Amino acid sequence: MTVVWLSIGWVFASVGVACLPMRKQYIPGVALLLCAPVLIILIGMQFGWVFALLGLAAFVSMFRNPLRYIAARLRGENPEIPE
After folding, report:
1. Planar angle of CA 83, 16, 22, nearest 5 degrees
2. Among 15, 19, 69, 76, whose CB has the most other CB atoms within 10 angstroms?
3. Range of the domain at 9
4. pTM above 0.85?
């Protein structure tokens, strides 16, 4: 049951960070980005791989732009950051 409450808290924190101006989103956004894989693994361990895949799909959907930026940086490109 703890994983469920942690997941709900993560979602509300993500929505709160999304409401911030772009320049203030970086630090809390990175923290949420780093916490998500741990939470998805915990969901998979407690509820099964189907729910972990659903959580992964939701995570990728919510963080698609930061993940694209990270992928571009790993390819050696220099993507533009919005102000």
Report:
1. 0
2. 69
3. 2-74
4. no
